[in-house]
Design goal:
Blueprint lengths: L3 E7 L5 H9 L17 E7 L2 E7 L12 H14 L2 E7 L6 H11 L4 E7 L4 H7 L10 E3 L8 H8 L15 E5 L6 H9 L17 E7 L2 E7 L12 H16 L2 E7 L6 H12 L3 E7 L11 H11 L8 E3 L11 H12 L5 H14 L12 E8 L4 E6 L7 H15 L7 E6 L4
Parallel strand pairs: 1-3, 1-4, 4-5, 5-6, 7-9, 7-10, 10-11, 11-12, 14-15
Antiparallel strand pairs: 2-3, 8-9, 13-14
Length: 437
């Protein structure tokens, strides 16, 4: 049995994200005390009494003239309602029943889904008796709730429990692809093109995606999870808590991913912020693909693709092992090359080399270049073995650990790549000292 999907909907600032976080038992949605913080749909996995299900946090329902993104938010909200099994409508006990609530209720009725009506900001029996009466005019069961302190939460979950799946299905782990880049390089357009539908809000306003939003994508029956992360801004522009938290979330999403697509803008070229973002992926030791987006806007008469790639590698010198793909997410040019490349790099990251083959490789590498002398003593390397994957890690055993300098480790890494490829993934070399018997 597949997991049920619960969509949390309501006006802005009624506490949807607070409830979402309580349901998934961790702080995933961005919370602040002003409306309109959640723009896209945000997914999380939750469980209640052994039943596993998905929760979707949506943007606040409002009139299209009230906000620049109101129309797009409404579209995303209704898409969430369409794919959900259960609708959890959150109302505000402090402000009472408003015309906008009635308007949303009428929209929900068109879908014929089971709707649970919960009145939030009721932190105890006293408030329940004074605030809740207005909502009984709806003629439905009402669940009083404080998403903040948990009052009424168990009763709400018990009410939904019979409609949740049993949670006995096998958990499938799909490759997680983090899509990172500075604001307005086309990350959400890239996700929409890969999915073949509007999954993110796309706007020319930088920083439109503030939360990371997960999407399951299929390519020739193979599934992937795409994580469109918030655009990383310069620190000076992240004074507001919401931007700073988004930045931290982006870094965490990179750490939790299997591979990162580093999206660059061909129309503007590489800037310092691109280097910092790529550096974050490198520091997290993740496999990667460099996506040079908006290639249709680049001046291709004055420079060739190979020259452009060399320019990119000069600025991102620490990612020379990472392949570069020139695309146009808008026109979908060369988009079909992304998933085969992702598969190849994931395979490279999990590749394991037999110790016998590694030591044949080591003999050839030592013929090319031995470690330099250390304090008039000859530095010997006895053997090499692979100790981990994702990313691949190797340990060399030597008689003098201090004699193996960083420069020689880089030489060994280069030789490993020449012999065994490891395209798109970091390679780590560890040094252990062993006295020869």
């Amino acid at each position: 049995m597949r997991k049920a999907i619960v969509a949390v909907v309501g006006r802005p600032n009624v506490g949807k994200s607070t409830l979402f976080n309580r349901m998934i038992r961790k702080r995933q949605a961005i919370i602040d005390d002003f409306p309109g913080v959640t723009r896209d749909r945000l997914y999380g996995e939750a469980a209640w009494e052994g039943k596993s299900f998905w929760v979707v946090d949506t943007g606040g329902f409002q009139h299209e003239g009230d906000d620049e993104f109101a129309g797009e938010v409404k579209k995303q909200l209704l898409l969430a309602v369409e794919e959900a099994d259960i609708i959890l409508l959150l109302l505000d006990g402090e402000s009472g029943l408003l015309p906008l609530d009635i308007e949303l209720i009428n929209e929900l009725r068109k879908y014929g889904k089971r709707v649970f009506y919960s009145v939030n900001k009721i932190d105890g029996p006293k408030k329940e008796s004074s605030y809740i009466g207005d909502f009984y005019s709806l003629g439905v069961d009402i669940f009083p709730l404080s998403a903040l302190n948990g009052y009424g939460f168990e009763e709400l979950m018990e009410g939904m429990s019979p409609l949740l799946s049993s949670g006995d299905e096998e958990k499938t782990e799909y490759p997680r692809i983090a899509i990172v880049g500075r604001p307005n390089v086309g990350k959400s357009t890239l996700v929409n093109s890969l999915l073949g539908k509007e999954r993110m809000i796309v706007s020319s306003t930088p920083g439109t995606t503030r939360d990371a939003v997960d999407s399951v994508c299929s390519y020739y029956s193979r599934k992937y999870i795409l994580v469109d992360t918030a655009g990383i801004r310069k620190k000076g522009k992240m004074a507001e808590t919401i931007e700073r938290y988004s930045f931290m979330r982006t870094l965490k999403n990179v750490e939790d991913s299997d591979i990162a697509l580093i999206v660059l803008d061909a129309s503007t070229g590489i800037v310092e912020l691109d280097q910092k973002i790529a550096g974050a992926v490198f520091a997290a030791k993740k496999g990667a693909v460099i996506i040079y987006n908006k290639w249709d806007l680049a001046d291709k008469d004055s420079v060739s693709v190979d020259e452009v790639k060399e320019q990119i590698y000069q600025k991102l010198w620490f990612l020379r092992h990472v392949p570069i793909l020139t695309i146009s997410a808008l026109s979908k040019k060369r988009m079909t090359n992304i998933f085969p490349l992702v598969d190849r790099i994931i395979a490279e990251g999990s590749k394991r080399i037999a110790t016998h083959d590694l030591n044949i490789f080591l003999k050839k590498a030592l013929v090319k270049q031995e470690p330099p002398m250390y304090r008039n003593r000859r530095v010997k390397i006895y053997y090499i073995t692979q100790v981990k994957t994702n990313p691949p890690g190797f340990t060399i055993f030597t008689n003098i650990k201090e004699g193996i300098k960083e420069q020689y480790i880089k030489f060994l890494e280069k030789q490993l790549r020449e012999h065994f490829t490891f395209e798109g993934v970091p390679v780590e070399v560890y040094v252990r000292e062993r006295k020869k018997e």
